[in-house]
């Protein structure tokens, strides 16, 4: 298959988006039921109202802060656990079953436990994001560090790099960066989901709070208007990490 240029890919994406929105608008107008399916124009009008009132800006700022803190904690914890699992077979056999179970468990199923243990406050919401995001990071770190680049390690030692920590930082982590970023990209997407779950069920704040609030009032156009920036946030984060990943892969 012939490789397509970035301009062609972007053009196809725009055309696909226009077709999708046009079909949605026509279907909504034919259905004529705003509660079931609001039109694109109604959703954009609701989005404009949320922006003009400042409600959306405040909610986005709160959500982004929660996501940033959750991803930072997930990255640190995932790296430490992943490095431990990669370098110790005992740790691997001890921890792997539990983290595999955590990865397979829907985040929303853990919310009642988080509520009992940590309450409705900010720490509890961060824990929900961490539970959603930490496992992909841990698995990617473990996978990347387990494949030991022996040739690079030998070269580093010949240049005087000694000690396990120096080799870990100077050689193993850098060699594993593409794999680590792939895990972080997956974790970011799951983190956005965890953030929305935390805001919806632990505290009515942020974008998740807007979604639940307008959903309870059956204002479907405002629900879609609240979901849109949440989706764009996830796409933006994953795209940035993916771009960094591609640059590191080829350089």
Distance between the termini: 25 Å
Report the CATH topology name: MetI-like fold
Largest sheet, strands/sense/barrel: none
Radius of gyration, rounded? 22 Å
**Corresponding CATH architecture:** Orthogonal Bundle
Shape: globular
Counting structural domains, the number is 1
Give the ordered list of helices and strands: HHHHHHHHHHH
- Helix fraction, binned, reads over 70%
SS-based structural class?
A: mainly alpha
By DSSP (H or I, 4+ residues per run), the number of helices equals 11
Residue windows where pLDDT falls under 50 for at least 5 positions: none
Can you put this structure into words, describing what you see?
The chain is globular and about 60 Å long. The chain has helices at residues 6-31, 40-53, 55-87, 89-104, 107-118, 122-146, 150-158, 164-175, 177-201, 206-216, 220-250. The chain is built from eleven helices and no strands. It is 85% helix and 0% strand. With 251 residues, the protein is mostly helical. The relative contact order is 0.13. It has one domain (40-250): Orthogonal Bundle (MetI-like fold). Helix 3 (55-87) runs parallel beside helix 6 (122-146) and helix 3 (55-87) crosses helix 9 (177-201).
């Amino acid at each position: 298959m012939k490789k397509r240029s970035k301009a062609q890919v972007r053009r196809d994406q725009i055309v696909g988006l226009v077709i999708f929105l046009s079909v949605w608008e026509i279907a909504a107008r034919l259905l004529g039921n705003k509660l079931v399916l609001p039109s694109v124009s109604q959703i954009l009008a609701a989005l404009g109202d949320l922006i003009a009132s400042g409600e959306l800006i405040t909610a986005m700022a709160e959500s982004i802060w929660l996501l940033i803190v959750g991803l930072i904690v997930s990255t640190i914890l995932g790296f430490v656990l992943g490095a431990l699992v990669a370098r110790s077979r005992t740790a691997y056999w001890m921890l792997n079953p539990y983290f595999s179970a955590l990865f397979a468990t829907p985040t929303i199923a853990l919310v009642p436990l988080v509520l009992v243990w940590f309450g409705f406050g900010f720490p509890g919401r961060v824990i929900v994001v961490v539970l959603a995001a930490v496992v992909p990071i841990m698995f990617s770190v473990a996978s990347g560090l387990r494949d030991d680049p022996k040739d690079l390690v030998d070269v580093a030692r010949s240049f005087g790099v000694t000690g396990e920590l120096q080799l870990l930082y100077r050689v193993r982590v850098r060699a594993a960066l593409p794999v680590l970023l792939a895990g972080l990209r997956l974790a970011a997407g799951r983190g956005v989901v965890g953030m929305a779950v935390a805001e919806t069920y632990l505290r009515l704040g942020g974008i998740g709070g807007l979604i639940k609030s307008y959903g309870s009032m059956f204002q479907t156009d405002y629900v879609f208007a609240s979901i849109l920036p949440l989706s764009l946030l996830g796409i933006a984060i994953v795209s940035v990490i993916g771009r960094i990943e591609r640059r590191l892969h080829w350089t």
